């Protein structure tokens, strides 16, 4: 058992724009986070991952950075940041920064220089190409609709942007770019931060020649095979590790689109040469994936078990997993895989939490998940703020006419990233207590019944259930380090698995359906005399033969 603090930690993700507004301008900010530090302490989390707070023109809510060493004005000042960092550290909470270095903003001074002329010293900081027959250099589509290339008349060339045209891709093959990035990381480490979440870090190394991709539904070529896990990505991360990461005590997690278990064993190998862990997407892609995101397909439980089990088993003893249902890019899991009706909301929120938090890996809780926050009843396109959602609507409905407006709105209500980005519901006063001004994005109207104040005042709330899951992980090595084994792989409604460590064993049973389910466990899981560790119903059965709607139970035994 190779212990490490980041294996034993629970991380809480803050999307600062939507967390807490301290000055009434309708936008969450750093002082708002400082105000709520005691709330996070009470929840019991160890680490905050802070989505970007750097200077940014906000084309993609801070994922387009114009100054890596400055704070976005909307969020406050560097003094506010330092105060927040100190407030976290005083409470034993660590801060992980979002590192967005696949691209910068087009308003970053490097890019402003780069586009000036072909011989500008910053030209090769980005990826510039000549057009082909008066068109883009290749057929790649950007993640946010349209081509992945933007024409620039100053030099009659195109630059690459895998995301919006205000997010030009950096050229990592240029050693000067790596020097700049590593210097900047070092600067934050010296400030005392505790780690990095690395935005789309699997995409920093592109296949030379940038070949055309297979065209998808939108007519553009898929850059995935030429960009994800590219030829030098491991070399660059090992260099980053040697030059920066290994010199500090950090938590590092790479957001790795397109990562396979084989690749993850390199990125997150236990030998510590690259990163601690990665975010993989296979379980998120089961209802469509990036290229086929806009639909209302449901995730199939048998498939979900297969995918999560593959990750649990393949990385065991070789690399480390991250565990997540939610983040700022995903709709609310309770509305996607659980049941957000009044009757089942809390049960299914607790069931999903149990299923995830009993696995091996470092769990991530996304703001509001611990309250059972749900998807949002957006009424029209005007209610949306997310560039991906808005662009996709224009492209699919107005330009290409592949979907009608009503259908697309239904898909957006189900899958849009904005579902995760409405303000945290603090109490039942106006605007859910998030702001005294006008919030930058609508508040979910269900805040009167779903809010932190109510959750904290009630012993059997989702909040207190998360609190208990987190404290169990801190108390029990088996939850962190135990081996995982799946039971009943073909059962379409029940997720059952065990964890074992030495003489100890956990049996985790989760009913993903609204109906009662029979559970036909192997004899080996029935003999012993179990103790119930945590459950979302009162009086769970010790017989382990049936599960009530959305019931979750964790049994503990010692041989
Ligand atoms: C990552 C971020 C997402 C952002 C994109 C471009 O996927 O999580 O929010 O839009 O990268 O930076
Ligand atoms: Ca504010």
Key phrases:
alpha/beta, 17 helices, 559 residues
Task: Report on this structure.
The radius of gyration is 23 Å and the shape is globular. 52% of the residues are buried. The model has no long low-confidence stretch (mean pLDDT 97). It has helices at residues 5-8, 30-35, 37-43, 78-90, 109-114, 175-191, 224-227, 233-243, 261-267, 301-315, 333-336, 345-357, 387-399, 405-415, 452-456, 462-475, 477-481; strands spanning 11-14, 47-50, 54-55, 67-71, 94-99, 128-129, 149-152, 157-160, 195-198, 251-255, 277-279, 322-323, 362-366, 483-487, 494-501, 504-511, 517-518, 531-535, 546-547, 552-558. The strands form five sheets. The protein has an eight-stranded parallel β-sheet with strand order 11-10-9-5-2-1-13-12. The chain has a five-stranded antiparallel β-sheet with strand order 14-15-16-20-18. It is α/β, with parallel strands linked by helices and 559 residues long. Bound molecules: alpha-D-glucopyranose (GLC) and calcium ion. Alpha-D-glucopyranose binds next to loops.
Strand percentage lies at: 15-25%
The biggest sheet amounts to: 8 strands, parallel
Describe the global form: globular
Give the count of helical stretches: 17
- Give a count of the beta strands, DSSP E runs of length 2 or more: 20
Hetero groups in this structure are: alpha-D-glucopyranose, calcium ion
| Overall pLDDT score | 97
Helix content percent band: 25-40%
Report the end-to-end length measured between terminal Cα atoms: 20 Å
Describe the strand arrangement of the main beta sheet, using strand numbers.
Answer: 11-10-9-5-2-1-13-12
Low-confidence stretches: none
Structural class per helix/strand content? alpha/beta
Radius of gyration: 23 Å
- List the quaternary state of the chains: single chain
Family: Belongs to the glycosyl hydrolase 13 family.
GO molecular function: alpha-amylase activity
Organism: Candidatus Blautia faecigallinarum
InterPro entries: GH, GH13_cat_dom, Glyco_hydro_b, O16G_dom_2, SusG-like_C
């Amino acid at each position: 058992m190779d212990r490490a603090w980041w294996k034993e930690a629970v991380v809480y993700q803050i999307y600062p724009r939507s967390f807490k507004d301290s000055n009434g301008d309708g936008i969450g900010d750093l002082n708002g986070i400082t105000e709520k530090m005691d709330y996070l302490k009470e929840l019991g989390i160890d680490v905050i991952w802070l989505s970007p707070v750097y200077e940014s023109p906000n084309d993609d809510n801070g994922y387009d950075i114009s100054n890596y060493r400055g704070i976005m004005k909307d969020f406050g000042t560097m003094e506010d940041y330092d105060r927040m960092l100190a407030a976290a550290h005083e409470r034993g909470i660590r801060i992980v920064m979002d590192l967005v270095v696949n691209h910068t903003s087009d308003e970053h001074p490097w890019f402003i220089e780069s586009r000036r002329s072909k011989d500008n010293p910053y030209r090769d900081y980005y990826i510039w190409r000549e057009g082909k027959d008066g068109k883009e250099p290749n057929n790649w589509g950007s993640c946010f609709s349209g081509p992945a290339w933007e024409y620039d008349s100053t030099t009659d060339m195109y630059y690459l942007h895998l995301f919006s045209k205000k997010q030009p891709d950096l050229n990592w093959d240029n050693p000067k770019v790596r020097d700049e990035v590593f210097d900047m990381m070092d600067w934050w480490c010296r400030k005392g931060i505790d780690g990095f979440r690395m935005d789309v870090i699997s995409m920093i190394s592109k296949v030379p020649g940038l070949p055309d991709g297979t065209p998808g539904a939108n007519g553009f070529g898929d850059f995935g095979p030429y960009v994800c896990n590219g030829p030098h990505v491991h070399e660059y991360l090992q260099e980053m590790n040697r030059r920066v990461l290994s010199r500090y005590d950090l938590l590092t997690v790479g957001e790795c689109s397109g990562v396979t278990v084989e690749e993850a064993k390199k990125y997150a190998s236990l030998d510590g040469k690259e990163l601690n862990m990665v975010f993989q997407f296979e379980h998120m892609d089961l209802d469509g994936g990036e290229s086929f995101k806009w639909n209302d397909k449901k995730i199939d439980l048998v498939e979900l078990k297969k995918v999560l089990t593959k990750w649990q088993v393949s990385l065991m003893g070789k690399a480390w997993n991250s565990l997540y249902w939610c983040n700022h890019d995903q709709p609310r899991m309770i509305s996607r895989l659980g049941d957000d009706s009044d009757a089942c909301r809390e049960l299914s929120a607790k069931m999903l939490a149990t299923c995830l938090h009993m696995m091996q890996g470092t769990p991530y809780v996304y703001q509001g998940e611990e309250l059972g926050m749900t998807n949002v009843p957006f009424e029209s396109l005007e209610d949306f703020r997310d560039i991906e959602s808005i662009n996709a609507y224009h492209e699919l409905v107005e330009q290409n006419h592949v979907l009608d407006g009503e259908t697309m709105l239904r898909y957006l209500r189900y899958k849009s990233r904005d579902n995760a980005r409405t303000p945290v519901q603090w109490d039942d006063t106006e605007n859910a207590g998030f702001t005294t001004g006008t919030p930058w994005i609508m508040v979910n109207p269900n805040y009167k019944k779903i809010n932190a104040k109510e959750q904290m005042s009630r012993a059997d709330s989702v909040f207190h259930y998360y609190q208990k899951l987190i404290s169990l992980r801190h108390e029990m090595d088996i939850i962190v380090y135990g081996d995982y084994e799946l039971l009943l792989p073909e059962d379409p409604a029940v997720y059952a698995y065990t964890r074992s460590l030495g003489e100890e064993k956990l049996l985790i049973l989760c009913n993903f359906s609204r109906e009662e389910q029979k559970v036909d466990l192997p004899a080996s899981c029935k003999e012993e005399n179990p103790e119930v560790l945590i459950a979302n119903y009162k009086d769970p059965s010790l017989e382990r033969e049936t599960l009530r709607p959305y019931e979750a139970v964790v049994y503990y035994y010692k041989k």
